[in-house]
């Protein structure tokens, strides 16, 4: 049975994959660890590798998890990388995020505001039901403040230019956090937003399964 290692989104965990099935694949969720002071994204990726104990794993990354999966894949040989609602390189990070990173605007954002569920956060994530809102609120509430600030800094300052040849990308056409106009993806989920692992899980499961069984 092949092993699949899943990197969830910023502050998220396996809860956002509760409706996505991986059939015959053996799934392990990578757990975020507390970043060290001034830790680089490359060094952090090296520490996450300690949770991977097989040769040539399949990596699946959601949002910030896709960025980390891309960094991990620079350090170990992988069979396949699948990104969901993420970015493959610096060029796919929206210019306004990079602008914020260049001028350090993101460092002035209070974490308590970022973690507070509002109608604005619901809109950005594309939540559609009361259950979606409850899950998003719980995820935001449970996000570690130190990790949140560190991860946002790494996103807006990401420098990666490498394109892995064994990487496939699934993206939603209605993603408001990483708009599809900045993304070159292999498969699109029509109407899918940044929360599509929850509210577009059936279609997403089918597309993930197709990529997992696809020969590169």
UniProtKB/TrEMBL annotation:
<dbReference type="InterPro" id="IPR000073">
    <property type="entry name" value="AB_hydrolase_1"/>
</dbReference>
<dbReference type="InterPro" id="IPR029058">
    <property type="entry name" value="AB_hydrolase_fold"/>
</dbReference>
<keyword id="KW-0378">Hydrolase</keyword>
<protein>
    <submittedName>
        <fullName>Alpha/beta hydrolase</fullName>
    </submittedName>
</protein>
<feature type="domain" description="AB hydrolase-1">
    <location>
        <begin position="48"/>
        <end position="196"/>
    </location>
</feature>
<dbReference type="GO" id="GO:0016787">
    <property type="term" value="F:hydrolase activity"/>
</dbReference>
<dbReference type="Pfam" id="PF12697">
    <property type="entry name" value="Abhydrolase_6"/>
</dbReference>
């Amino acid at each position: 049975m092949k092993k699949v290692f899943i990197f969830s989104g910023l502050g998220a965990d396996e809860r956002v994959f509760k409706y996505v099935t991986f059939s015959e694949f053996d799934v392990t969720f990578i757990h975020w660890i507390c970043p060290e002071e001034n830790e680089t994204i490359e060094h952090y990726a090296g520490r996450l590798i300690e949770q991977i104990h097989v040769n040539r794993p399949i990596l699946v990354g959601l949002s910030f998890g896709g960025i980390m999966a891309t960094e991990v894949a620079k350090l170990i040989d992988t069979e396949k990388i699948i990104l969901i609602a993420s970015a493959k390189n610096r060029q796919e990070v929206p210019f306004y995020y990079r602008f914020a990173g260049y001028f350090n605007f993101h460092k002035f954002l209070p974490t308590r505001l970022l973690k507070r569920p509002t109608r604005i956060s619901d809109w950005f994530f594309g939540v559609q039901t009361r259950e979606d809102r409850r899950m998003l609120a719980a995820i935001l509430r449970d996000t570690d403040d130190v990790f949140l600030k560190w991860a946002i800094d790494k996103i807006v300052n990401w420098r990666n230019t490498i394109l892995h040849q064994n990487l496939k990308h699934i993206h939603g056409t209605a993603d408001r956090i990483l708009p599809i106009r900045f993304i070159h993806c292999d498969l699109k989920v029509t109407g899918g937003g940044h929360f599509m692992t929850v509210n577009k899980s059936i279609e997403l499961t089918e597309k993930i399964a197709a990529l997992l069984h696809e020969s590169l």
